[in-house]
């Protein structure tokens, strides 16, 4: 094993707090992650969600990158149908100019919200067909030095090395990533159903490119680590209540943990299905399950997202997770 480990953050707003209070918590997490050896810190574009404050993703990436010095910062992801490729190229070209060799551009094909909100974002373009692979190729062209002679250029952006990742939760995105020879990040933290099928398809159909010689898979998973299994399960009740809001449409700010979960059996079944790739427990519990996960999937990188109410507990969870991955890497190299 030589597994990289990273962070996915949604700038999650907790009960009793505001986005203004949330952003410094995200920056503190990024600074701690940098010290702990995390490879990258990504932020996700979502809209019209009361508990998610990362909607202006490129702006927040700049804030995080400005408060750190070595960790890569990027999008997990930018929802490409919401934006013109030229605007994305200019925004990330600007970020890459200010923070060279530290910016990642993860791209998704979903709206990052409900259909009504997507209509507000896209306007009349909502009714136009969207070609995700073609827009990715437009971005690659705009970033290329060879585009200098074109009538439309991305300034800044042109000639810059901004790594593009394909994000997905289905086999469709796997095919796109494979065909374009790009790294693939799967959203197994909320859409586990097609994970194994998608990464197998990606690997078998992968075509080497100038960007990537062989397949590279990153899995995003939920992680709630604590000193004991019991404490981790208690902390994870905040995550479970968040997912109840997702499936019922009754979203709330991230709630404090509770000693006992009281929920409808159908809700419990649906939430547990969505949280299939969640690692909740002590270091020893995580180590056993993560080792089995890596052996089964062969992933190159694990991106952890941790919806934990208390900031100190959240930072401690990421510390324990990094220790587990480092110990597994060390053992495999002996």
From TrEMBL:
Q: Which Pfam families match?
A: Bac_luciferase
Ranges of residues in domain Luciferase-like: 10-300
InterPro entries assigned: Bact_Lucif_Oxidored, CmoO-like, Luciferase-like_dom, Luciferase-like_sf
Q: Give the similarity note.
A: To bacterial alkanal monooxygenase alpha and beta chains.
Q: What is this protein called?
A: LLM class flavin-dependent oxidoreductase
Organism per entry: Mucilaginibacter dorajii
């Amino acid at each position: 094993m030589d597994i990289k480990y990273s962070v996915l953050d949604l700038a999650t707003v907790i009960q009793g707090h505001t986005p203004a209070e949330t952003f410094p918590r995200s920056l503190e997490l990024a600074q701690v992650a940098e010290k702990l050896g995390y490879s990258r810190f990504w932020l996700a574009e979502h809209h019209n969600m009361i508990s998610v404050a990362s909607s202006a993703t490129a702006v927040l990436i700049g804030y995080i990158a400005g408060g750190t010095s070595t960790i890569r910062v990027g999008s997990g992801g930018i929802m490409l149908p919401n934006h013109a490729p030229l605007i994305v190229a200019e925004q990330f070209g600007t970020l890459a100019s200010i923070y060279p060799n530290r910016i990642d551009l993860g791209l998704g094909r979903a709206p990052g919200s409900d259909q009504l909100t997507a209509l507000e974002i896209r306007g009349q373009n909502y009714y136009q067909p969207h070609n995700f692979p073609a827009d990715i190729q437009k971005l690659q062209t705009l970033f290329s030095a060879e585009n200098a002679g074109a009538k439309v250029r991305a300034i800044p952006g042109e000639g810059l090395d901004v790594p593009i990742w394909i994000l997905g939760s289905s086999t469709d995105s796997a095919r796109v990533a494979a065909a374009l020879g790009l790294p693939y990040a799967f959203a197994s933290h909320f859409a586990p159903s097609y994970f194994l099928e998608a990464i197998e398809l990606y690997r078998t159909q992968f075509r080497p490119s100038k960007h990537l010689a062989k397949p590279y898979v990153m899995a995003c998973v939920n992680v709630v680590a604590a000193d004991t299994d019991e404490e981790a399960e208690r902390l994870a009740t905040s995550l479970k209540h968040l997912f109840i809001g997702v499936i019922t449409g009754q979203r709330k700010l991230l709630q404090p943990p509770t000693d006992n979960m009281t929920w409808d059996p159908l809700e419990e079944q649906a939430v547990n299905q969505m949280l299939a790739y969640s690692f909740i427990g002590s270091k020893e519990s995580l180590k056993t399950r993560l080792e089995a996960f890596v052996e089964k999937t062969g992933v190159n990188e694990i991106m952890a997202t941790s919806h934990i109410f208390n900031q100190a507990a959240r930072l401690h969870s990421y510390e324990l997770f990094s220790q587990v991955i480092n110990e597994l890497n060390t053992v495999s190299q002996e």
